[in-house]
Amino acid sequence: MDHARTGLVANPTKPGAAALARRMAEALRMRGAEVVPDEATAELAGLGEGIPLGELGRHVDRVVILGGDGTLLRTASLMGALVRPLAAVNIGRLGFLTTTTVEELDEFVDVLLAGAYEISLRRTIEATFVTADGVAMVRSGLNEIGVTRGAISRTVTVEVRIGGEFLNAYSGDGLLVATPTGSTAYSLSAGGPIIHPGAEVFCITPVCPHAIANRSCIVRDDVAIELHPVGRTDELLLSIDGGDPLPLCRERVVMLRRGPVDVPLVTLRGFSFYGILRQKLQWHGGNV
Description:
Layout lengths: L5 E5 L6 H14 L4 E3 L1 H7 L16 E6 L1 H11 L6 E5 L9 E2 L3 H10 L2 E6 L2 E6 L5 E6 L2 E6 L6 E7 L2 E8 L1 E5 L7 H4 L11 E7 L9 E4 L4 E6 L5 E5 L5 E2 L6 E5 L4 E6 L4 H8 L8
């Protein structure tokens, strides 16, 4: 039995999160595991003293997350370079990135502590940019970087260069650059393709493009992608994995490249990406 230290992170906005966190902590401890909650989860569920989420990776060997894809994305972001293998119990909606469900909790704990799982390393995307108030920032995401228009309802134009070579000027509501993991998120909703998470690529997808010929473009993830805002001086926003948008300085280039840290996701043996697609997208092999 694997007695490695296990972090515990719960989404406090989910119904029943406190009770589920206590149940998970008890199930882990009954099997001999040491449970280390983050501060918010410790307070939510009355689990004693917790660790700041950004420091949790220094104290644990893996992290169990109670929530959906959004909770996992936030956890990966806040853990940063200290990220440990993440295993999410889905109490959200689709749950493309989650490992298991609440109904399978006890079986999941047994598998986790037996070490009978695999790790799927997921590439990230890193953005270097300057905000509208002149602050230089470097931020990473697991799903996508989005550059979109602000509150004013007018199109924006973004020129894209790949490895220094001009690709296209996209006009519309914005532009997404997604990882393979992010291809089943916002990018899919915007009409982008589904990409296997092991592919070494980025997907550039315009959001509501003004020209019908502007479609998604797949590029290698070992080249730099430059986004140059052009035209109007309206507000332009940058968001990472659907988080709070940051106003951009339009005079500065947004530079995108593969992130320095891959995110390790726990998958159960027998995991099939294509099986997950069939399940989550309700594909049944019909002719429609």
